[in-house]
């Protein structure tokens, strides 16, 4: 099997080391790079456009819940993403799949299981924990919204993040150094692509990507 260019994005050095060992069995040692924050991951992706696979920790510093995955899928739709997390909520796993993750590996998994999961993903398959049944939520409003995020251009995605922060069109235009009329066009396109009625609904559903993970983590604490 040819080597796959990969990045492990996780802030825990010990787990990165273990994951790197498991990944090496499936994709080889040399190409695997490491990042400890979401920002450093995107800097690395910019510097290494040949990257084919990213292991993304759900709670990596800089990520607001699932927004980190959504941003990664939006900007790099051709890169395979394997989520790794201590969070084993079926709801969270379902949303990750809706956002385009190719696998969701609990951190409690053995190195052998992780290696097998990676091999399946490289072969074009999807891997999920056997105990997870994501079917009930696959057609939920949030799942459909998550899938539609991939339709946005990177610039439209940036506009959406500012809409979710409550910024007005003129404030977004100032931040992006473009005309307010252009922002209005972006907003109209965003609402159409996301199949939502207004910017308020779009902002609520986008912020829910972070809220769902936060609430689930609190419930399991």
Question: Would you kindly provide a written description of the structure presented here, covering whatever features stand out?
Answer:
By secondary structure, the protein is an alpha/beta fold. The chain has 2 domains: 6-137, Response regulator (Rossmann fold); 141-220, Orthogonal Bundle (Arc Repressor Mutant, subunit A). It has helices at residues 13-27, 38-47, 67-75, 90-98, 111-122, 141-148, 154-164, 169-176, 180-194, 199-220, and strands spanning 6-9, 33-35, 53-57, 80-85, 103-106. A 5-stranded parallel sheet has the order 2-1-3-4-5, with helices on both faces. α1 (13-27) links the parallel β1 and β2. The longest helix has 22 residues, at 199-220.
Helices, strands, pairings?
Elements: E1 6-9, H1 13-27, E2 33-35, H2 38-47, E3 53-57, H3 67-75, E4 80-85, H4 90-98, E5 103-106, H5 111-122, H6 141-148, H7 154-164, H8 169-176, H9 180-194, H10 199-220
Parallel strand pairs: 1-2, 1-3, 3-4, 4-5
Quick rundown:
With 221 residues, the chain is α/β, with parallel strands linked by helices. It contains ten helices and five strands; from the N terminus they run βαβαβαβαβαααααα.
CATH architectural group of the largest domain: 3-Layer(aba) Sandwich
Can you give the mean pLDDT? 87
Proportion of residues in β-strands: 5-15%
Instruction: Name the CATH class of the largest domain.
Output: Alpha Beta
By CATH, the superfamily of the largest domain comes out as: Response regulator
Q: Could you describe the largest sheet, including whether it forms a barrel?
A: 5 strands, parallel
The shape is globular
CA radius of gyration: 18 Å
Helix content: 40-55%
Series of H and E elements: EHEHEHEHEHHHHHH
| CATH topology heading of the largest domain | Rossmann fold
**Tally of DSSP helical segments:** 10
Number of domains: 2
Class from secondary-structure proportions: alpha/beta
**Beta strand count:** 5
First and last CA, distance: 41 Å
Strand arrangement, largest sheet? 2-1-3-4-5
- Low-pLDDT regions: none
């Amino acid at each position: 099997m040819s080597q796959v260019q990969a990045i492990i994005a996780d802030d825990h050095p010990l787990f990165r080391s273990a994951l790197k060992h498991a990944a090496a069995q499936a994709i080889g040692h040399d190409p695997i790079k490491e990042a400890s924050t979401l920002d450093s991951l995107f800097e690395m992706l910019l510097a290494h456009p040949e990257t084919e696979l990213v292991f993304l920790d759900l709670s990596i510093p800089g990520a607001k819940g699932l927004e980190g995955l959504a941003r990664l899928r939006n900007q790099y739709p051709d890169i395979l993403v394997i989520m790794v997390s201590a969070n084993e909520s079926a709801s969270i796993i379902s949303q990750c799949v809706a956002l385009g993750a190719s696998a969701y590996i609990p951190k409690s998994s053995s190195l052998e299981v992780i290696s097998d999961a990676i091999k399946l993903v490289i072969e074009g398959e999807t891997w999920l924990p056997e105990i997870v049944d994501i079917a009930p939520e696959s057609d939920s409003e949030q799942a459909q919204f998550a899938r539609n995020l991939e339709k946005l251009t990177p610039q439209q995605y940036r506009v959406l993040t500012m809409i979710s922060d409550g910024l007005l069109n003129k404030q977004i235009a100032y931040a992006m150094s473009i005309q307010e009329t252009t922002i209005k066009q972006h907003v109209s396109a965003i609402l159409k692509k996301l199949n939502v009625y207004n910017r308020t609904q779009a902002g609520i559903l986008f912020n829910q990507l972070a809220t769902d993970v936060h609430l689930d983590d609190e419930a399991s604490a």
